[in-house]
Amino acid sequence: MPHAPPLGALLRRFSAGSALACEPVDQGLLNRGYRLRTTRGRYFLKHHFDPRTADPAAIVRQHRATRRLAEIGVPVAPPLPDREGRTVAVVGGHAYALHPWIDGRHRHGGQLSPDQCGRLGALLGAVHAGLERVMPPPTRTHAAPGSSASGPAPAETADPADTFALIDDLLARVRGHSPADPFDALARHRLLERRALLERHAGRRPPHGGAAGWVHGDFHPFNVLYRGDSPAAIVDWDRLGVRPRAEEAVRAAAIFFVRPMGTLDLPRVRAYASAYRRAADATPEQLAAAVHRVWWERLNDFWMLRWHYERGDTRADPQFPAASALVVWWTREYEAVCGAFAG
């Protein structure tokens, strides 16, 4: 097994028995996870590998948050303590945590009924309201790792001048890739298309981000486990931090409810957003402003292409066709998208 964890040392530390089976879980983009079966039960072993999220103090903060959320009824999977009551085990310079295994499956927004879409929005609203109850008042030191926000201070919005320079750099990288392949052709088409869109809409740059609070930071289908029709657990709290909350609601919807051709399922978005507003006590005006900022963010964002061409990391490539088409459709249907979130 590549990157095999030190199972013996970890299981002794957590008094979790002897290993019977250990299989990698491949869905995470940041860290490594393992489905673990021992003589004492089934577990999820998490290796906090990515340096941006592997600080033990930040991991402890995540663990404390999930434990407190569980106490107030939010479906999460808090980590298990070791023999000394600690939830982070550092072995060989690497940080690990052991969680109970949660039976469940991931569900995309298209697999949810309108009622279930509303329950999903209410769940995220409960997360935001719950975090406000259980976490300390946000400060600048609580920003999520790698986020553009730096605590409760307003988040900067993308500067079109920087984006134009990035587009030119990425186009040069596309031209330099040999032999050219279909991904290169789509990347070039979307980069040229995005440059034209940005030239047309450069004057619509929004002001700084809205009111910030504690957020999950990565709320999407692979981080919500369903058992039957109901969410069983929200997992992967690596990006827990302080950001504009309404923007997380919009970003999540843009992942859950995007269709393969790059459009949003607006009736499902409407059910989700209406329930989120009630649960989070958010106003239509806050959601409309968040829609504008996330639209602008998407218009200026090329993280998938940067992973592909700068890092040689192709794990996000399957998401690129729909994600890159979405911002074009969103620009054309801007008023309808706003209405679905704020109406």
Annotated CATH homologous superfamily of the largest domain:
Aminoglycoside phosphotransferase (APH), C-terminal lobe
> How far from one another are the termini?
51 Å
Which architecture of the largest domain would the CATH scheme give at its second level?
A: Alpha-Beta Complex
**Approximate shape:** globular
Query: The CATH topology of the largest domain is what?
Result: Aminoglycoside 3'-phosphotransferase, Chain: A, domain 2
The major pleated sheet works out as: 5 strands, antiparallel
Q: CATH first level of the largest domain: which class?
A: Alpha Beta
Rg: 21 Å
Q: Return the string of H and E elements.
A: HEEEHEEHHHEEEEHHHHHH
Alpha-beta classification: alpha+beta
Low-confidence stretches: 145-152
How many alpha or pi helices?
11
**Numbering strands along the chain, what is their spatial order in the largest sheet?**
1-2-3-5-4
Features:
343 residues; alpha+beta; Phosphorylase Kinase, domain 1; Aminoglycoside 3'-phosphotransferase, Chain: A, domain 2
Q: Can you summarize this structure?
A:
About 2% of the residues have low confidence. The protein has eleven helices and nine strands.
Can you tell me about this structure?
- By secondary structure, the protein is α+β, with helices and mostly antiparallel strands.
- The chain folds into two domains: 94 residues, Phosphorylase Kinase, domain 1; 191 residues, Alpha-Beta Complex (Aminoglycoside 3'-phosphotransferase, Chain: A, domain 2).
- 45% of the residues lie in helices and 14% in strands.
- It is built from eleven helices and nine strands.
- The strands form three sheets. A five-stranded antiparallel sheet has the order 1-2-3-5-4, with helices on one face.
- A hairpin with a 2-residue loop joins strand 2 and strand 3.
- Helix 3 packs parallel to helix 7, helix 5 runs parallel beside helix 10 and helix 6 crosses helix 8.
- It is globular and about 60 Å long.
- The termini are far apart.
